[in-house]
Structures are given as C-alpha cells and as structure tokens.
Backbone:
C-alpha cells in the first residue's frame, strides 16, 4: 500500500516536472510569436487585418500538416532505433498512388454510384491505397535495415530515388495527358459548433480531414509512446536494445512494427498532397517536405508534440513569407523566402538547445 | 557476407536507376541530323514551356526526317552532364530549355564548338566578372566565342500586358494578382507586363504578386493564391510551371477567374478550364521549329532571335468558354493595346 502511494506521488511529481518544462516552452513560444507578430506588422505597415491574421494562421496549420506527418513517421521509426530518411520517397509514392486511385477509381465507380458517392468512396479508397503504397516502401526499408542490417542511410536514399523513378515513370506513362476529370480533393469539414468560435474556430476547426487526423495523431502517438507499456518497450529498444532483449522484448519485431507504422503515417502525409492540398500530381511535388519533417522531429527532440510544434513553426514561416511578399513587393523576394529557414535556425539554436537522439538510433541490432 | 551482398545489390539498383533515369540516347545513322533537348526540372510533360519546346522539336524532326531525344533534368546540377551526354553521342543540335540553363549552355557551347546550341529564354551580353562572356567583348555571340549559340527570346512583357488588360477589365473587386515562380527575367517580364497592363485599362487597380522560388510546388502555389484571394483578388495569373498552376487551382476552387501562361492551358490543363479566361502564350514550339527549319536550310545564325507580338511569337490564347462572357469593350481594349504595342506607341514598362 505504501509502495503504491509513493509510486503515485512519483508519477505526479514527474507529471509536474514535465508540465513545468512544457509550460516554459509554451510561454517562450508564445512570446516569440507575439514578438514576431509585432515585428511583422512593423514591416508590412499594419496592412494585415484580423481576417488576414486568421487566414494566415489557418494556412500555417494546413502547410504544417504534411511536415508533421513526416515528423511523426520519423519519431515512430527512430524511437525504436531505425533511422528513416526515406520519408520523402514514401510521401511521393503515396501522393501518386492516392492521385491515380482517386482519379481512376472515380471513373470506374461513377456509373454505379453517381458522382457524389463515387467521389467519397474513391477518395477514401485512395487514402487506403496511399497508405498501402507507403507501407510497401516502409517494408522494404525494414527488411533492408533490420533483417539485412544494411546501412539505414543508404537504404533510405535508395527508397527516395526509387520513388522518384517509379512516380516519374508512372506520371509520364499514365498521368501526364488526356486525363478525365477527377472527383477533386476532400471537402472542408467544419466541425459543428466548434467552428463557430471566433478566431480559433476558423483556424482549428474549419479544415480538411487529414489535418484533424494529424492533430489527433500527435496526441495519440504521444500517449502511446509515453503512457503505455508498448511505448516503454519501444523506447527501451531505441535506447538500449540489448537490455530490452534480456528483458524478453523482441527487438526486431518491435522495430519492424514501428517502421511499418511510420510507413502508414508517411502514407497519410503523402495523401495530403493529392487528396487535400491540390487535385493534381506532378513529379517531385513533395518538394523536400519529408526532409523538413525530419528537421521538425529533431527540433521536437523526438517527441510528437515537439515535432508538431516544429512543423507549425515552419508553416508559420511560410505564411509570414507569403504575407510579407504580398504587402511589400518592394522588398526583394529572396528576403521573405529566407524567413522559414531563418526562423528555424534561430529557434533551434536559441530555444531548443541540445537535441539528443535515441542512443541506439541507426544501429542494427545483432542478437549475440 | 550478407552485408557485402546487400551493398552490391544496393549499388546495382542505384546504377540501374540512374541509367534508366538518363535514358541513354541510342545511336543512329550519321546522315540524319540528331537533335537533343535538355529540359529544365519541370520535365517534358510540364503542360508548359518544356512540353512546348519538345513539340517544336518533334514537328521539325517529323518534317525533315531527323531523329530526336530528350533528357529531363532532375536538378540544376544535371544541366551540364545532360548536355555532355548528347555531345558524346555526337548530336548535331542541342536545345536547352530555360533561363536556368544559361550558364551551363554557354560553358558547354565553348567546349563543343562544332555542335549547334539553341537556348530558350537566355541571351548573352557582356557582364562584369563573367566567366562565360567577358566584359571586354562587344558581343558574346561573335567576339565572345559563342559562335554556335542561338538564343530564342520572347517578349513576355507584351503578352503579360495583354493578360493584364484582360484581368483589369474583368475584375469586379478591383484587385488582381499573380502567383509567380522563381524571380528570373522571363517570369519578371510576365509579371511587370501584367501589372502595367491592368493599370493601363484601370488606373486604380490593386495588383498583388508573390514570387515562389520553385517551379514544381503546386501546393505552395495554391496556398499563396488563396492568401491573395483572401486579400480580395479575383483574377489570378499563374506564371511559373506547376507552381503557377497551383494559383489557377486556387482560383478555380473559389469560382473566380484565372489566366494561364506559356501555352493555351485550356487545352493542356483542363482541370482549371472553368476558371480560365485565357492564357498568355509564348509560342516556344513555333520558335524552336523555325530555328530547326533554319538549321535544315543552313541559314541559322548565332545571336538573339526575339519573338514578340509583331511576329506572332507571343499572344493571348483564345477565350474559349469565356468568349461570350467577356464584354466587347474589354476585347476592344485588348485589340487597341495589341496594336499600340506593335506600333511602339505603348510601352509595357519593363526595364531590364
């Protein structure tokens, strides 16, 4: 009985320490945001009114979505000790799979179901296929890096190049010309009541489904990693696989599962491009966001909330760039374009401090 | 052992991919001329000027019985090695598409003086500290040593001006905007012409523009378009490959108006045809074809060839579905601007 209370108080204390730490982060972030906002308004001469701010913040969340998915994929893989730089490739593949399934599925279903229902069915089908295609590449990466213990950077690079090759070929062969009209992207799904809240409503609750899913995943992955037995095991495998092994945790199995889960999340991120952002596919359209997701993961110290924050920061940089470019055409365009990167560097060096990767990150595990 | 096997396997996969990606141009008889086209990163199906250039090459090849291949550049570091690839295969003419390839083309043209080069959107003039064309010369083409280079230039500002007249005439909110790609001269010419054209027909019009440092980022183009639509813009001009296409998508989604670029995008990009008023077309295919025809007749010359309104090298594409919805007064203004630009009475306001 005594033991249990002390365990409880330990847990409470831990929670308090964590809360205090995250409170500091939140306060610092808020301060940074206000400072950035004041500075921005000086630059653009107060031309961005209330609606413009809300638009920019809603855009921040939209732009952050694929980056956050990529970062979550990184978190899931690396917490188990597998480095995955093939996120970009997985997203590109998923984007293409989603686009083509959405388009051609719609054509097949249109007669049977009518355009509205066919659009809905084909979009969800496309989402599933996007996840499946990314899962396939994740499986390849898992087999390379876990079973064959190859260098994980090389394996990830191969996946990136493979995805560029396959999607480029498929695009030229099937998706470049003479396409039928598609069903379009997911419609906006305003959440009833919540979307009516001033300021917060349009930003958080007037978005498309994958954006909500991304927010839910942040909470879900955090809870899974830090509050469940499964999460404890994953982290043990990522920090000290041998110790985990002696305790009877199947290291290789854990790594397989996490790499595949990462693939699922990356697939959702890829689907964002063609099912939520635009209803076209073009080669190389992921445009490096997978790598920026990795940066967000490091920024967030391999924690899903931190990673989300990193993604949001980058998204904010993007919105600010657009806003400054619009209102101050006299400033050379390269200067606002630097902002997201500049902001990332400043925050990385000034606020985040040292980020330490899981100890066994990138090391193949050999059972002795 | 297994590890080594895997490394070898990985390398093999890599090599095969690189080979496949470069699509090594095959040999052929020496009697036929061989034409090589190096695209910019947009690729040959970019629904825009790379595609148009390749169409011009194909037309010439069909007519003169030559053969042709293209190589797509995946990143700027590919430019020189893609040109090298055609050069080592003894191609007779190499067409390089786009301003971004300016330096690579000049360097390689000096390296292979017996191959003819044609570059789209880049003209060479002496500049300070330039590697490719020193200040000491008067003319980069003859005394600068680029005797084998023909530059195919377009007066984008003229057709941009006409697009601006159209936009300024059609806007209901009094705000027009453009989603532009990288800030390079051909893009800037389009944008400056567009804004001045709108101001010419409607002096109090508000013009917005954002340059995005990429030609492949459709989602970002769309986001940027949405931002400007949020500021009241109701005619979006997309100038910049797939990035600009994002701007067109944003306009279509909101049921507003859009203007395409480079080719008649009503035909190449039917996704946005409901919103598309017209396109500011530059006839890259015609310019490339005319150049190759000159090569066939041995009348081609090094130097700059400028396509403009006067020689029908640029122009507004048909209005298609919008034809009945565009008031006659706006059409008349476009006609007037065309005539005055041709005669030199009206200037687009672009200064290099």
Residues:
């Amino acid at each position: 009985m005594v033991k249990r209370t002390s365990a409880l108080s330990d847990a409470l204390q831990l929670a308090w320490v964590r809360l205090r730490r995250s409170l500091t982060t939140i306060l610092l972030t808020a301060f940074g945001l206000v400072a950035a906002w004041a500075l921005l308004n000086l630059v653009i001469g107060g031309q961005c009114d209330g609606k413009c701010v809300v638009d920019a913040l809603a855009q921040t969340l939209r732009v952050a979505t694929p980056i956050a998915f990529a970062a979550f994929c990184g978190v899931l893989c690396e917490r188990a000790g597998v480095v995955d730089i093939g996120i970009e490739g997985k997203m590109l593949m998923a984007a293409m799979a989603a686009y083509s399934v959405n388009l051609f599925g719609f054509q097949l279903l249109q007669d049977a179901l009518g355009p509205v229902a066919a659009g809905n069915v084909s979009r969800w089908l496309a989402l599933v296929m996007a996840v499946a295609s990314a899962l396939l590449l994740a499986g390849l990466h898992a087999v390379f890096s876990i079973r064959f213990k190859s260098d994980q950077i090389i394996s990830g690079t191969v996946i990136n190049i493979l995805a560029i090759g396959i999607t480029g070929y498929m695009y030229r062969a099937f998706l470049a010309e003479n396409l039928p009209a598609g069903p379009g992207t997911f419609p906006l799904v305003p959440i009833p009541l919540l979307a009516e809240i001033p300021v917060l409503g349009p930003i958080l609750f007037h978005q498309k489904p994958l954006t909500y899913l991304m927010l839910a995943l942040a909470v879900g992955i955090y809870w899974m990693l830090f509050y469940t037995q499964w999460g404890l095991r994953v982290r043990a495998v990522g920090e000290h696989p041998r110790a985990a092994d002696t305790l009877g945790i199947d290291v290789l199995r854990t790594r397989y599962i996490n790499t595949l889960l990462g693939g699922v999340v990356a697939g959702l991120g890829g689907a964002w491009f063609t099912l939520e952002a635009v209803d076209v596919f073009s080669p190389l359209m992921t445009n490096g966001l997978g790598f920026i997701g990795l940066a967000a993961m490091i920024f967030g110290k391999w924690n899903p909330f931190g990673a989300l924050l990193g993604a949001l920061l980058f998204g904010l940089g993007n919105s600010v760039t657009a806003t400054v470019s619009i209102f101050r055409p006299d400033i050379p365009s390269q200067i606002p374009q630097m902002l997201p990167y500049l902001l990332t560097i400043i925050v990385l060096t000034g606020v985040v401090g040292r980020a330490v990767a899981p100890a066994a990150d990138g090391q193949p595990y050999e059972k002795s | 052992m297994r590890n080594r096997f895997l490394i070898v396997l990985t390398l093999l996969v890599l090599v095969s991919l690189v080979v496949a990606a470069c699509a090594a141009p095959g040999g052929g008889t020496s009697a036929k001329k061989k034409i090589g086209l190096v695209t910019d990163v947009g690729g040959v199906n970019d629904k825009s000027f790379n595609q148009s250039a390749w169409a011009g090459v194909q037309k010439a090849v069909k007519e003169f019985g030559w053969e042709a291949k293209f190589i797509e550049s995946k990143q700027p570091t590919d430019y020189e090695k893609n040109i090298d690839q055609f050069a080592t295969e003894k191609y007779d003419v190499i067409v390089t598409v786009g301003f971004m390839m300016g330096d690579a083309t000049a360097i390689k043209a000096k390296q292979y003086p017996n191959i003819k080069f044609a570059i789209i959107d880049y003209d060479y003039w002496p500049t300070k500290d330039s590697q490719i064309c020193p200040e000491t010369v008067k003319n980069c083409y003859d005394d600068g040593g680029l005797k084998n280079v023909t530059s195919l230039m377009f007066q984008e500002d003229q057709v941009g001006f006409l697009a601006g007249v159209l936009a300024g005439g059609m806007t209901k909110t009094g705000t027009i905007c453009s989603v532009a790609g990288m800030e390079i001269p051909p893009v800037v010419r389009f944008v400056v012409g567009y804004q001045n054209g709108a101001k010419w027909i409607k002096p109090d019009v508000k013009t917005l523009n954002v340059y995005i440092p990429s030609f492949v980022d459709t989602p970002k183009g769309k986001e940027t378009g949405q931002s400007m639509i949020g500021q009241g813009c109701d005619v979006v001009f997309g100038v910049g490959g797939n990035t600009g296409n994002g701007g067109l998508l944003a306009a279509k989604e909101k049921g507003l108006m859009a203007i395409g670029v480079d080719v008649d995008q009503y035909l190449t990009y039917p996704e946005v045809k409901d919103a598309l008023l017209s396109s500011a077309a530059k006839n890259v295919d015609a310019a490339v074809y005319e150049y190759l025809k000159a090569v066939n007749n041995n009348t081609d010359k090094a130097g700059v060839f400028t396509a403009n309104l006067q020689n029908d090298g640029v122009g507004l594409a048909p209005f298609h579905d919008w034809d009945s919805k565009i008031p006659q007064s706006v059409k008349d203004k476009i006609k007037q601007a065309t005539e005055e630009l041709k005669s030199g009475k009206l200037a687009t306001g672009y200064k290099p």
